[in-house]
Design a protein that fits this description.
This is RNA polymerase sigma-70 factor (ECF subfamily). One of its GO terms (molecular function) is sigma factor activity. Pfam families: Sigma70_r2, Sigma70_r4_2. The chain has about 170 residues and is an all-alpha fold. The protein folds into two domains: about 90 residues; about 60 residues, Winged helix-like DNA-binding domain superfamily/Winged helix DNA-binding domain (Arc Repressor Mutant, subunit A). The protein is built from seven helices and no strands. Helix 1 packs antiparallel against helix 2 and helix 2 packs across helix 3. The chain is globular, with a radius of gyration of 21 Å.
């Protein structure tokens, strides 16, 4: 019979922690993310998503440095935000190359969005350096030497990263 009161007590402690941490850190986190993304609206969305992920954790009692955890979650979400934005820009650039008056059909748009989502999911399975090497190679059109310099790795490692990404995105290729 002690389980229910104990469970309610833990829930109350959890809610108190999450509420006080939100009040204490939301403004700070939003400002920090704003410096990364440059948009107040995007920063607020990313900060809210960060707290949503924090609230989704089963056990918050072990968290000793909440701001460090919030920073880690926010950086990952920001990286995902940038990756989606880069894919969106690539799609828009592709649309801009189409002849004037040739609008994509609903089926083409749907297929392209599905392909982008599939590629995004495939890239999410890779290491951050492999993802970045692929994006810099394919979307920024940088050479392997410049990518290697940016990532602090060898040119042969960049080749391996790009090969991993290509294999993940197009397994039958």
């Amino acid at each position: 019979m002690n389980a229910a009161p104990r469970s309610n007590e833990l829930l109350a402690l959890r809610n108190a922690f999450l509420g006080s941490e939100f009040k204490r850190s939301y403004g700070w986190l939003t400002a920090a993310v704003h410096r990364l993304v440059g948009s107040r609206n995007d920063a607020e969305d990313l900060a809210a998503s960060t707290f949503t992920e924090l609230a989704a954790l089963d056990d918050v009692s072990h968290i000793r440095q909440p701001r460090a955890l919030l920073t880690t979650i926010a950086r990952r979400l920001t990286y995902e935000f940038w990756r989606r934005r880069d894919l969106e820009r690539a799609w828009l650039a592709e649309l801009a190359l189409r002849p004037e008056g040739h609008a994509a059909s609903a089926e083409e748009v749907c297929m392209t969005v599905e392909e982008i989502v599939r590629i995004d999911a495939a890239l999410a399975t890779l290491s951050s350096k492999a993802r970045e090497a692929f994006i810099l190679s394919q979307f920024e059109e940088l050479g392997y030497a410049e990518i290697a310099q940016r990532l602090g790795v060898s040119v042969s490692m960049v080749r391996k990263y790009v090969a991993q990404a290509l294999a993940a995105c197009w397994p039958a290729a």
